[in-house]
Amino acid sequence: QVDVAAMARLFGYVDVTDTGFIVAVLSIAFNPLFWNVVARWEHKTRVLSRVCGSAHAACYCLGAVILLLNCVRSHCFTEAMKSQPKLECWDCHWTYYSGLAILAVGTLFVISSFLALGFTGTFLGDYFGILMEAKVTSFPFSILDNPMYWGSTAIYLGWSLM
Fold first, then answer.
1. How far apart are CA 86 and CA 96, in angstroms?
2. How many CB atoms lie under 10 A from the CB of residue 33?
3. Which residue spans traverse the membrane (predicted)?
4. pLDDT, tens digit, 9 for 90 and up, residues 44-91
5. Which of the listed residues 32, 45, 47, 107 has the most CB atoms within 10 Å of its CB?
6. 24 Cβ contact partners less than 8 Å away, ≥ 6 residues apart
7. CB 116 within 8 A of CB 141
8. Directed axis angle between helix 147-161 and helix 93-122, to 10°?
9. Alpha-carbon distance 108 to 44, whole Å?
10. Which of 111, 112, 109, 130 is nearest to 121 (CA)?
11. HEC states along the chain?
């Protein structure tokens, strides 16, 4: 048996019919679907590498598209957050600074992951045949299995609280 009362209360605080909310959810779902489909397609066909002239150039192009899509996603998320109902009991300095701290930790994980992996390691270079010499085990990979995902999640959670 599933108790849906908690979900019903949660949806009382979220306007799921808001256009901005729907667009944000769609952009959040679309981004990883897009880059995984394109990367797998490239791995099977090597079309992007041929069109761009090299695997590195193709990976950099896909990385640029992913960054652009992430900017769109962040904008949609921000606009959706502005139009959603706010919990008055959480509208205080404690919540704001907690959100800021969570956002800072998330940013630390994302940036340190990027620095450890490099551009091609971050943006699906393995699908282009660009492999790292060895598995990355330095910080933040020494404390988390997926620091980029956890960091991104923390950034959006912190942003939401703020």
1. 13
2. 9
3. 20-39, 51-69, 100-125
4. 999 999 999 999 999 999 999 999 999 999 999 999 988 887 877 778
5. 107
6. 73, 76, 77, 79, 80
7. yes
8. 150
9. 34
10. 130
11. CCCCHHHHHHHHHCCCCCHHHHHHHHHHHHHHHHHHHHHHHHHHHCHHHHHHCCHHHHHHHHHHHHHHHHHHHHHHHHHHHHHCCCCHHHCCHHHHHHHHHHHHHHHHHHHHHHHHHHHHHHCCHHHHCCCCCCCCCCCCCCCCCCHHHHHHHHHHHHHHHC
Residues shown for the chain? 162
Nearest Cα neighbor of 128 from 30, 35, 28 is 35
Tell me how far apart the alpha carbons of residues 162 and 160 are, in angstroms, rounded to a whole number.
Answer: 5
